[in-house]
Design brief:
By secondary structure, the chain is mostly helical. The protein has helices spanning about 40-55, 65-85, 85-95, 110-115, 140-160, 170-190, 200-210, 210-225, 260-270, 285-300, 315; strands spanning about 10-15, 20, 25, 30-35, 110, 125. Bound molecules: zinc ion.
């Protein structure tokens, strides 16, 4: 990682160098802004590196949608990495008062760089209503459609899972974040080897999800974006920047060929599955049940689907006195 790679308003993942480059620039009032200090930008670039490890042909694709999926994966990584931190989940709940669509730092990707460019909602706003036929083929522009659908799904998942009598909403958000991380990773793993389109990954997300009502909920959000509509096309974008910076890279770590890596993602996903409602009882043996389920999962002994309530962190934030 090169934290101060030079003066430029950008950051990049470079496969050739197996490196992430973070540049710095001066904003309009002369302050020096270091992109390496932005959590969103760092996790976005790490997201590129991870996806390149999973699907090495995506970065070589000339299809705008495949490039846009790379960008969207970066932004989704930023959102989900934020939710890996319980204090951030608490901040999101506090700032939004539990309405995740109300404007907060949560949906704003790259606020500092966005501000420098005069954008009020960050470099990109994940909480948008854009359809595929309302944006251009420029991959960052186009990526907002997929990220927007993902964000709506995440929010609706949270709204379905929230249970104020039982759990702190920050804890629910944390668990939903974990679940969605595993689901998105599985979907990309199961996606096509090369030239993935939005609809391929959308379909893969729906295939990974076993619950029919959630599957339909996913479809509703993808349909709203016209992701499954073959006639909906982004507007042409002629500037060469579309391709630039995506091809000059080669040879990262091929995680995808590592069976242990795949097994780990699969077991995380099973561990977090929300279908099983077997842990409704909040009695004294709740902790025991959670520990049992978690240890079964760790031993690979349990092959039944498990619930999102099985996350080992649950007891820490459980509301006992409500
Ligand atoms: Zn990017």
């Amino acid at each position: 990682m090169y934290a101060r790679a030079g003066e430029m308003m950008n950051a990049e993942y470079a496969r050739n160098e197996k490196a992430l480059f973070f540049y710095y620039f001066n904003n309009n009032i002369g302050q020096r802004i270091y992109t390496c200090e932005s959590f969103d930008i760092v996790s976005h670039e790490v997201g590129h590196a991870v996806l390149d490890g999973l699907k090495p042909h995506y970065i070589e694709s000339r299809l705008p949608e495949t490039g846009a999926l790379h960008e969207s994966f970066g932004d989704i990584t930023a959102i989900l990495s934020l939710l890996e931190q319980l204090d951030m989940c608490e901040a999101v709940i506090a700032h939004s008062k539990g309405d995740l669509h109300s404007p907060t730092f949560f949906m704003r990707i790259g606020e500092q760089m966005g501000n420098a460019l005069g954008f009020k909602m960050g470099l990109r706003n994940a909480d948008n209503n854009l359809r595929i036929d309302q944006v251009t083929e420029e991959i960052h522009d186009l990526s907002r459609v997929f990220t927007g659908a993902f964000f709506d799904i995440l929010v609706e998942m949270f709204e379905q899972e929230v249970n104020l009598n039982k759990y702190d909403p920050a804890e629910t958000l944390f668990r939903v974040g974990k679940y969605m991380s595993a689901l998105v990773l599985m979907a990309f793993l199961n996606g096509p080897k090369r030239d993935a389109k939005f609809r391929d990954i959308a379909k893969a997300m729906m295939d990974v999800e076993k619950d029919n009502s959630r599957k339909n909920m996913f479809k509703k959000h993808f349909d709203k974006r016209k992701i499954f509509d073959w006639s909906a096309k982004p507007k042409p974008y002629a500037r060469p920047r579309v391709i630039e910076g995506r091809i000059s890279v080669c040879g990262t770590y091929p995680y995808v060929h590592d069976p242990e890596f795949r097994a780990e993602i699969e077991s995380t996903f099973q561990l977090l599955d929300m279908n099983d409602n077997g842990l409704e009882d909040e009695g004294d043996d709740f902790q025991e049940q959670v520990e049992l389920k978690v240890s079964q999962a760790a031993n690979g002994a349990a092959d039944e689907w498990r619930t999102i309530e099985d996350v080992e962190h649950t007891p820490l934030l459980e509301k006992k006195d409500m």
